[in-house]
Amino acid sequence: MSENEYILEATNIVKKFPGVHALKGVDLKVKKGEILGLVGENGAGKSTLMKCIIGIHPPTSGEIKFDNIQLNKFSTSDALNMGISMIQQELSPIEFRPIMENIWLGREPKNKAGLVDHKQMFKMTKELLSTIGMDDDPKMLVKDLTVAKQQMIEIAKAISYDAKLIIMDEPTSALSGNEIAELFSIMRKIKEEGKSIIYISHKLDEIYEITDRVVVLRDGEYIGSKDIDKIEVNKMIEMMVGREITELFPKVKCEICDVKMKVVGLSSGKKFQDISFDVRKGEILGVAGLVGSGRTDLIETIFGMRKSTAGKVFIDGKEVEIKSPADAIANGMAFLTEDRRLNGIFPMLSVKINIIVANMNHLINKAGLLSTKMVNKKSLEYIKAIQIKTPSPEQMVMNLSGGNQQKVLVGRWLMTNPEILFLDEPTRGIDVGTKAEIHRLITELAGQGKSIVMVSSELPEILGMSDRVIVLCQGRLTGVLENNDELTQEIVMQYATKTMS
Amino acid sequence: MNSNNSEKLSILKQILSKYGIALILVGMIIIMTILKPESFPSGKNILNILNQSAIVGIMALGMTLVIISKGIDLSVGSVLALAGVVAASLSQIPEASIKVFENLGPQPIVIAIMAAVAVGTLAGAISGGLIAFTGIPAFISTLGMMTVARGVVFLYTKGQPVSKLSDGMLFFGSNVFGVIPVPVIVYAIMIIITAILLGYTRFGKSAYAIGGNINAAEVSGIKVKRNIVLIYIFAGATAGLASILFTGRVASVHPGAAAGYELTVIAATTIGGTSHSGGIGTVWGAVVGTLILSVLTNGFTLLGIDPYWQQIVQGMIIVGAVVLDMRKNAKKA
Predict the structure, then answer these.
(1) Which of B213, B326, B329 to mutate to test the interface with A (most CBs of A within 10 A)?
(2) Which residue range is the domain that position A451 belongs to?
(3) No. of H helices and E strands in chain A?
(4) CA-to-CA distance for A422 and A455, rounded, in angstroms?
(5) What is the nearest CA distance from A66 to chain B, expressed in angstroms?
(6) Chain A residues contacting B, CB < 8 Å?
(7) Which chain B residues touch A118 with a CB distance below 8 Å?
(8) Nearest partner of A275 among A256, A257, A302, judged by Cα
(9) B127 interfaces chain A, CB cutoff of 8 Å
(10) Å from B308 to nearest chain A CA?
(11) For a Cys staple, A447 with which of A16, A139, A254, B194, CB 3.0–4.6 Å?
C-alpha cells in the first residue's frame, strides 16, 4: 500500500489501574474516512481505550500512531492540536457560561488589541450551530439548555476542532429520534470529507445504521473486527457477551408467595415512562438494561429520591405514597446504592458506626444517649451474621476491601429489617470470591421471604440470580421474562437494545 | 392566587434575581437619602464613601478572580501589611527616629509601589504554586501564607511601626486630583483593568472554566495549573497595590495592620454575587458588594448608631446575599 490507509493505529494497548487490569493488549486501527463502531458490554474497556487515545490516561504500555506519527506521552491539548477530538460520555459543560464560550474555550478569537472578540465568537458560533441545524442564541447559558441540546453543543465543539478523528462515546444517549437523524447526517458529511469517526454505542441498530465496520471488545481484550454488512446481530452479541461464566451463582430455590409490591404506570419525566411490574415475597427480580436505560432512575423513584410524574406503587395491595427515602424506609424498603463511595459509605468512620448509622433511634439508652453497649452488641451481631472480614468493629471502613464495604452496607440495611430490598449493582468492582458470598447472602434473604429487586449490568449475574427479569431500554419496559432454562444473555440483550421508534 | 397575580410575581422575581444585589444598594441609598437629606447625598460624602471603598474594593477585584476559580485567598490582609511595611520602609524620611534601613533616604515613590506590588506578586505566586502543584486546598495554602506573611512583617519591622513617610507616599492616601481623591482614581483604573481581564481575555475565560468545571477546562486544552498560579498572583498584586493606598492613608504602618481585612474582602466579594461553588461572578458585583459595606458604615456613622450593630447587619447581609444568589443560580428544571 502506497499511502497509509490508517489514520490511527493503536497496537497492544495495556492499561492497568490499581487493582484493575482494564486493557489487556488491545489493537485498534481506524481507516481514513471510516466510521468505526466500537462495541462491548459495560466494563469491556471501550471508554478506557478512548481515554488512552485522547491523552487523558497514558497507557501502561503499547504504541499509538496517529497520522503516521508516533505519539509518546501526550496531553489532551496535544491530542486536540494533532486532530483528535472526543465527545465524552459524561457531559462536561461549564454550566454558567454561554454556549459560545463553552465551544471556543481556550481558543477564543482575538481582536487586534489581543482581547477576546465576542462579536467574532458570536458569529463563528452562529455559523457552527447552523451546520448542525441548531439556531439557539450563542449567548445562552448552557445550564438553561436541555440535556439533548447540551449534547449537541458538545458535538458542535468536537466538530469545531476540525479534527481528523472524532471519538463519540454514547453521543445519542440523550437525543431523540430527530436529533439522532440530524447527528447521523452530520456524521456522514464528516466522513465524506475524508475524516474518521469512532462511534461507541450500546444501541446496535444505530451501529448497523451508521458504521462501516465494528470492533468488539470484551473484558479488556480485542475480540475481533468485522465489516458491518458481514456480521449478523446475533453473532455480534455473542462476540460481546461470550465469556464463560466462571462465577458461581448459588441460587437457592425458595418459595415464591404473594405479590409484595406492585408498580403501575410509573413515570418520571424524561427518565422513564409508564413502567409496571410486580415483585413477590421471596422473589429475586432482576432488572436488566444498558447504562442510561433508566434502571437506576426507576429504583430511585420508587425509593422516593426522585419525583414521579405519574403512576402508583402498592405494597401488600395498599397504595402507598412515597415522597422521600424516609417514607420508603418506613414502608419497609431498603436501597443499596450503586455508588458505594458517593451514596453509601462513610469511609473515615468505623465499621461499627457505618452499620448502625441508619438505626440509631433504636439504640438509645434511658438517658437519651446512644448506648455504647447496644451499639457494640448489635454491630458485632451483624459483622458475624454476614461475615464481614474486619480486624475489629473499630476499623475505618476505607481500609476494608470493596466486597466487605458492600457487606457493611448490606448489614446497615438489614438492621432496619426491610421487606423489600433494592440492590443496584451489588457486586460491581468486587472480587470473585466475595461476589459469590454476596450472592449467597442475597438468596438467603430471599429465602427468608424478603423481596429483592436487583439491578445489574452483568447479564450472567442477572441470569444466575433472578427468578424473573424485567428489561428496560431508553426509559421503557421492553420485556418481562421468566428466567427458565431457555432465557439466554442474547435474548436479554435483544430486549435491551430494542430502540423504540 | 389568580394567574395574573402570579405572573406579576414571577416578573418581580426575575427583576429581583437579576438585579438583586444592586437593588439592595439602591434601596440603602434611598433610605439614607430620606433619613439624612443634607449630609448623605452631598458630593463630599459620596466621594468620602468611594474613598473609603478603595482599599477593600481593589482587593475584592483580585478576590473575585480567586473565588470564580473556586478558590479562596485568606492571606490578602497579611500580604497587604507586608507590602505596606516594605513600601513604607523605602519611603521613610531621614528625620524618622526608628528606621528599618538606618542609612536609607526616601526612595522615589515608583520604587516603593513596585516593591509593594512585587511583594504581593511573590506571595500570590507561592500560594498559587502550592495549590496548583501540590494539590493542597486553597484554604490551607493561603492560611499558611497569611500566618507566614504576618510573621515576616514583625520580623522586618522588629515589631515597631514604620512611620515618618515621604510626601510622595502620603500623596496616595489623602491627596485629591481636582476634587477626586487619588485612591478613587486608582480604584477606578483597577476596576477597568479587571473588567477587561475577566471579560475580554483568555485568562479571564479560563478562570471561569476552571471554577465551573475543572475537568472540562483540562480537556479543552487549558493550562489549568499555570492559570491558577496567575490568578493568585493577580490577587496578591491587588493586595500589594492596595497597601500603597493604605500606607499613604495611615501614614504609619503598624505591624498588626490590616488584620482581618481578608474577611471584609471576602465578604464584599460574596455579597457581590461571586459564588463559592465556582464559575460565577462579575467585576460589577465586587464593586457593588464593596459599596454596600461602605454605605453601611457611612450610614451608621451618620445616623449615630452603635457601630457594633454594623457587624450584626453586615453578617446578615452576607448570608442574605448568598441565599438570594443560590435561588437565582438554581438549575432550571
Answers:
(1) B213
(2) 257-332+419-501
(3) 16, 20
(4) 8
(5) 18
(6) 54, 56, 75-77, 80-81, 86, 88, 92-97, 101-102, 105-108, 110, 114-116, 118, 143-144
(7) 200
(8) A302
(9) no
(10) 38
(11) A254
Residues A427 and A409 placed together within one structural domain of the fold: no
Identify the domain boundary among A193, A216, A241: A241
Same domain, A413 and A426: no
Render B82-96 in DSSP notation, one character per residue: HHHHHHHHTSB-TT-
B208 touches chain A (CB under 8 A): yes
Nearest to B200 among A86, A94, A115 (CB): A115
How far apart are alpha carbons B58 and B69 in whole angstroms?
A: 18
| Cβ–Cβ below 8 Å for B219 and A86 | yes
Query: Between A94, A96, A110, which is nearest B329 by CB?
Result: A96
Q: Residues A164, A7: contact at Cβ < 8 Å? A: yes
Question: Which residue from A315, A281, A320, A285 is spatially nearest to A304, judged by alpha carbons?
Answer: A320
What dihedral angle (degrees, nearest 10) is formed by the CA atoms of A78, A80, A82, A83? 170
CB contacts, 8 Å: A144 with chain B: 332
Contact state of A106 with B331 under an 8 Å Cβ cutoff: no
Q: How many structural domains does chain A have? A: 3
Angle of the A372-385 helix axis to the A402-415 helix axis, nearest 10? 120
Chain B: give the shortest CA distance to residue A212, in Å: 28
Is the model more confident about A426 or about B255?
B255
Residue A1 lies in a domain: no
Cell triple for residue B249?
Answer: 492613608
The sign of the dihedral angle between the CA atoms of A424, A426, A431, A432 is negative
Task: Name, in order, each residue with C-beta under 8 angstroms of B73's C-beta and a sequence gap of 6 or more.
Answer: B62, B63, B66, B124, B127, B138, B142, B232, B235, B236, B262
Q: Do B221 and A77 touch (CB under 8 A)?
A: yes
ipTM of model: 0.80
In A, minimum Cα distance to B208 occurs at A97
- A94 with B209: Cβ contact below 8 A: yes
Mean pLDDT (10-residue bins), chain A, 501 residues = 78 83 90 92 81 88 90 85 82 87 92 93 94 88 84 86 89 75 87 92 85 91 91 82 54 70 91 92 90 86 90 93 89 82 78 87 85 90 86 86 82 88 83 73 87 88 89 90 84 78 40
> pTM surpassing 0.80?
no
In chain A, which residue's Cα lies nearest the Cα of B211? A94
**Domain boundary residue among A390, A417, A444?**
A417
Q: Is residue A61 part of a domain?
A: yes
B280: pLDDT strictly greater than 70: yes
Residue A131: count other Cβ atoms within 10 Å of its Cβ.
12
CB pairs under 8 A between A and B: 78
DSSP string, B6-26: HHHHHHHHHHHHHHHHHHHHH
Interchain contact, A115 vs B332, CB within 8 Å: no
3-state percent breakdown (helix, strand, coil) of chain A, nearest 5: 35, 25, 35
Please report whether residue A24 resides in a domain: yes
Grid cell at residue B200: 475580554
Q: Domain segments of chain B: what residues?
A: 43-321
A390: enclosing H helix or E strand: none
Instruction: Output the nine-digit C-alpha cell for B63.
Output: 478576590
Cα-based angle B84, B86, B90 (whole degrees, multiple of 5):
115
